[in-house]
Write a structure and sequence with these properties.
The protein has two domains: about 15-250, Type I PLP-dependent aspartate aminotransferase-like (Major domain) (Aspartate Aminotransferase, domain 2); about 255-380, Alpha-Beta Complex (Aspartate Aminotransferase, domain 1), CATH 3.90.1150.10. It has a seven-stranded mixed β-sheet with strand order 1-9-8-5-4-2-3. A three-stranded antiparallel β-sheet has the order 12-13-14. It is of the alpha/beta class. Helices cover about 35% and strands about 15% of the residues. The longest helix has 19 residues, at about 255-275. It is globular. The structure holds pyridoxal-5'-phosphate. Pyridoxal-5'-phosphate binds near residues 85 and 180.
């Protein structure tokens, strides 16, 4: 990136091999449901060690499929973190269920999973912990309720991450793990999503939901019905991803480790340069023997909302792309006004929100870009 000019907060890295893979896919007879969908699914499953992977048209669609597969429906409650993208809990609403927010752990900024386990009632059908920023959420405290609820990890930020050597999305993790392949995320298929699971029945439901609930498997034709016969067994959607998108996704998957390494190197550089800066605190680090996915590098500006606002505006004036991830979901008017979700039940999320700023972080950033962002940040912080 050019020094001094506008710097985005995120940007995809598409190389010639990615372009060639897409062009090749476009010349094939099947550009939607061809061989590349299954090929990407196999490659991702192999990468994280999962038994099944089901690719979707977006991360949100994958989360919706997961909520369906978990049996989430009217009258049910779904517990999640307020510090996430609204899609994590919108999928509960799509299924007619009620989202419920449990506070974050201030030491990780992830859902406090011990508090979430303690909050489970007989109505709770699923818990959606988010591996926010790419720091793998600690799922162990949820073991106590695993027989009663389905754990759906929103790992939109965490592809390529692991916790104590256990890959996010692999065995020993959530019942279903969802990734996003949006261009702002670590690898992209333009739009796209993935759901992984060890469970055969959950995988069957994930596949069924992706294509209208229609199948030719496990069907019951009458004597005069032949090979054309199909059944719609559930109410699903058209959430299919295309072969063209999967060509890009699989090509990007080959670069996953390079991307995550580069993101971690950039984050380490930020930490080094910001170590003595006492007007901010630095983001939480994962436990030893774990790997951060590093989708985001979030700093926390001290001293309250006015300081965060002036710092954010200072960065913007200097051409540094920054964002706030996220406005707590219960503050969004749809949740607050229409659902009456309480505003102040999550003091840790509130404290986090009023200081948070995401700095630019993407593999194409140079070391000079980091120096420049740090200089602009220091100039933008309150004196
Ligand atoms: C990006 C994102 C999603 C949704 O993914 P899409 O592919 O954009 O639909 C869900 N949850 C979180 C935390 C995200 O960051």
């Amino acid at each position: 990136m050019t020094s001094g000019g506008p710097l985005p907060y995120a940007r995809q890295d598409i190389d010639d091999a990615d372009v060639a893979a897409v062009v090749e896919a476009l010349r094939d007879p099947f550009i939607t449901q061809g061989p590349r969908v299954a090929s990407l699914e196999r490659a991702v499953a192999e990468r994280v060690g999962a038994k099944h992977c089901v690719a979707y048209s977006s991360g949100t669609a994958a989360l919706h499929g997961a909520a369906f597969a978990a049996g989430v429906g009217p009258g049910d409650e779904v517990i999640s973190s307020p510090i996430t993208f609204a899609a994590s809990t919108n999928v509960a609403l799509y299924q007619g269920a009620s989202p419920r927010f449990v506070d974050i752990d201030p030491a990780t900024w992830n859902l406090d999973t011990a508090a979430a386990a303690a909050a489970v009632t007989e109505r709770t059908r699923a818990i959606v912990p988010v591996s926010f920023t790419g720091l793998p959420v600690d799922l162990a405290p949820l073991d106590a309720v695993r027989d009663r609820v389905t754990v759906i990890e929103d790992a939109a930020h965490a592809i390529g991450a692991h916790r104590h050597g256990r890959p996010v999305g692999g065995p020993g993790g959530a019942d279903i793990t969802c990734f996003s392949l949006h261009p702002a995320k670590t690898i992209t298929s333009a739009e796209g999503g993935l759901a992984t699971t060890e469970d055969d029945e959950l995988a069957r439901l994930l596949r069924l939901f992706r294509t209208h609930g229609i199948t030719k498997e496990g069907i019951h034709p009458s004597p005069d019905e032949g090979a054309w016969y199909y059944e719609m067994q559930e109410l699903g959607f058209n959430y299919r991803i295309t072969d063209v998108m999967c060509a890009l996704g699989e090509s990007q998957l080959r670069r996953l480790d390079d991307f995550v390494d580069r993101r971690n190197a950039l984050a380490a550089r930020y930490r080094e340069l910001l170590a003595g800066e006492d007007r901010i605190s630095l983001p939480p680090e994962p436990p030893a023997d774990s790997r951060h996915g590093r989708h985001l590098f979030v700093i926390h500006v001290k001293g309250g909302g006015a300081n965060r606002r002036s710092t954010f505006e200072g960065l913007q004036e200097r051409g540094v792309g920054c964002q706030v991830h996220y406005v707590p979901v219960y503050r969004l008017p749809y949740y607050r006004d229409r659902l009456g979700v309480p505003q102040d039940a999550c003091p840790n999320a509130e404290d986090y929100y009023w200081g948070a700023i995401s700095l630019p972080l993407f593999p194409l950033m140079t070391d000079d870009d980091v120096l420049r962002v740090v200089a602009d940040l220091k100039d933008s912080l309150p004196a």
